[in-house]
Amino acid sequence: MSPKSFASAMLAAVLLLLASQSLYVVNETERAIKLMFREVVDPDIKPGLHVKIPFVETVKKFDGRVLTLDIASARYLTKGNKFVIVDAFAKWRIKDVQVYYKATSGNRAEGSKLLTSLMNKGLRDEIASRTMHDVVSGERDALMTRLTELLNKETQKDLGIEVLDVRVKAIDLPEDLSKSVYDRMSAERAREAREHRSQGRELAEGIQADADRQKTVIEAQAYRDAERTRGEGDAEAARIYSAAYSKDPEFYSFTRSLKAYTETFGANDMILLKPDSDFFRYLKSPDGK
């Protein structure tokens, strides 16, 4: 290679190196800050192609998207001196790049650590001002909303971070307290069950007694009506018999004697009576004389 060609190649290499050190791109999903000798000269670089002084100015880039911080489950003390185990997470993003860089030195792990500490402090303060019932169900939404507001104010000022939302994934009780609560709930349900059974037995006995009373009344009324109907039938039958037999008393007496004969004598029966007994008067004479 000739000296002229070698010089041209070296010049091209130097120009490429200067260009690579002078030009940089900030993506839409990134936030960037420009430093000169570790001093901030541009606190918020917009997305696009930019130029910097090589070897003098440096550019720090950070993820500008919404990020998730999932903190480890921890024990917190409620207003009633009861412990609860809370598992929560937060949605956050960089709001002020310069403040974020100064607070974390551009280290995302350090930012997550500081935000975790503030979240734990906020959760501890908010849960300590509420009872267990409020934390578990009553004011759970209000707790998350207030914690988001308070945490967002503090992190924007101290960390340059905007907290968009804080959510509680789960609230559990410690094992010893869970057993105590379970035993208390079991005893309460058993007591309610006994009360319901007692009320059911009392109601059943009342229904049974009322049914027995109605049964007795109905049977008495039915017996009374049956006896009245039977008496009326017997009276009507006697009246009919009397009316029929009064038309021919002699014939009535004759049929009564025949009936007495058939009911008295069987195949091998024997009866001893005087021959002139009135019982045989229709056997002696058709007219019974």
UniProtKB/TrEMBL annotation:
It is a single-pass membrane protein. Residues 1-25 form the signal peptide. CDD domains: SPFH_HflC. Gene3D superfamilies: Band 7 domain. One of its GO terms (cellular component) is membrane. Residues 21-185 form the Band domain. GO terms for biological process: proteolysis. One of its GO terms (molecular function) is peptidase activity. Keywords: Hydrolase, Membrane, Protease, Signal, Transmembrane, Transmembrane helix. It is found in: Membrane. Belongs to the band 7/mec-2 family. HflC subfamily. HflC and HflK could regulate a protease. PANTHER family: MODULATOR OF FTSH PROTEASE HFLC (PTHR42911:SF1). This is Protein HflC. The gene is hflC.
